[in-house]
Design a protein that fits this description.
The N and C termini lie far apart (39 Å). The longest helix is centred in the first third of the chain and has 15 residues. This protein is 36% helix and 22% strand. The chain has a seven-stranded mixed beta sheet, with helices on both faces. By secondary structure, it is of the alpha/beta class. It contains ten helices and seven strands. Helix 3 packs parallel to helix 4. The protein has a single domain, classed as Rossmann fold (3-Layer(aba) Sandwich).
Length: 252
Amino acid sequence: MKNKAWSETIKKNFNNASADYLLYSNIQRHFAEYIVSHLKGLSIQKGEWIDLGSGTGLLADEIEKEFSTKKITRIDFSKKMLLQNKEFSKKILWNLNNGLPPSIENCPLMTSNFCIHWLDNPEKIIREWFSKLRSGGYLIISYPTRNSFPEWKQTCKEINVEYSGLTFPFSRDIIKSFNPDEIFLSNEYLYVENFPDVYKLFRSIVNVGAQSTKCQRKKVHELRKIQRYWPKKDTNSVNLTWEINIQILKKS
C-alpha cells in the first residue's frame, strides 16, 4: 500500500472513531498522565506549547488541567478528531508526514502521545520536530515499541497465521541520531490489558481507530484459531501486553 493511500486509511479509521475515542482510550490516557507527571519536574520557558497528533485533545487537556495558565496548540490530520477538542482551543488541521506547519518554530515545548508510530518515517520526523525547538526546549514523546503484543505474535507463530498488528518502532532507532546530552530521559513501561476474549481485544483496537494494517483482513476461521490458542488466564480471559517508551529530548 502506497504511503498516501496508507495515510488516508489511517485518517478514515480515526475519523470514524472520533466520537467515542475518549470512552475507550485507557492506555492513551494512562500515558498522558505519565507525560504530565514528567512535565511537572521540568522548567519550561515561556512560549507556545504544542501537542502533535493531538487527536481529541486527551493529552492537551491533561496538560491544561495541571498548568491552568497554558493553552495548548493541538495539531492533527483528522478533522473529526480535532472537532472533539475544546471549542475555543487553538487547532491546526495538518498531516505531520509533511513536517510541521510553517508557523511552528522556536517552541519551548512539543509533546506527542501515541502518534509517531503512525507516521511514514518517525526517525526523520522526530529530528524535524526537534529542530523547531528553541535552545533549552523539550520534546516529549510516547509510543508503543517493537516489543509490544508478545502474546499476539507468539500465537500467530504457533498456528502459522500472519501477525496483522502494526509494526512499531524500536526505541533505540527513534533516538539513534541524537547526542547523549540531548536525551534527557528514555524509559520503557509495561502496560497489560485484559479482555474476556480475543474478539473483544480486537474490538478495543477498532474502538480507538487503531486497526489500520497493511495485512489482509483475518478470515473467521483464522480468528477462531487465534482465540483457541491465545494464552489464557485462570478466568479464561486474555491479556495484551504493551511496551511503551517515553522519551524526553532537550535541545542544548
